[in-house]
Amino acid sequence: MTATDGPTLRLELSPDPRLLRVLRLVASGVASLGEFDLGAVEEVRVAVDELGSTLIGASTGAPIELTFDLVDNNLCVEGRTALSSGAELEVDPLTDRILDVVATSHEWGTTGGVAHGKFEKSAAPAGVAS
Length: 130
Hints:
34% of the residues lie in helices and 30% in strands. The protein is an alpha+beta fold and 130 residues long. A five-stranded antiparallel beta sheet has the order 1-2-3-5-4, with helices on one face. α1 (20-32) runs antiparallel to α2 (38-58) and α2 runs antiparallel to α3.
C-alpha cells in the first residue's frame, strides 16, 4: 500500500431496509479513517442512506453490492443491484437534491438490467469547513 492508497471495503447485503443502519455505521467508520470532520462524516451517512434506500427500493430481491474506496481523503461509494427485466432505475427527485447538498458528486444509471449508483465525498483540507 502506498501513501495515496486507502482501504477498500466490499459489502453485500440483502435488500432489507432494516440493514440501512448497518450501512450507515459502515460508511461512517470508513469515512472516519480519512480526514473527514464530524459534519462530513454525517454527510457521508446521509448520502449512503439515500444510495442504499434507492437501491433497496429498486432491487428484485437480489443482494445490494457496495464498494467503499477511500483514496487521498476522497471517499467513493458505489452500489448496484439487479432490476426486473426491462425496468429502469427510478430515483426520487428529493434524493438527488439531498445528494447535491451532502456529496461532492453523484450519479445513477441502469446497464444490462443492473441499477447502479455512486457518490463521492471529499474531505475538506485541514482548517476548512466542509
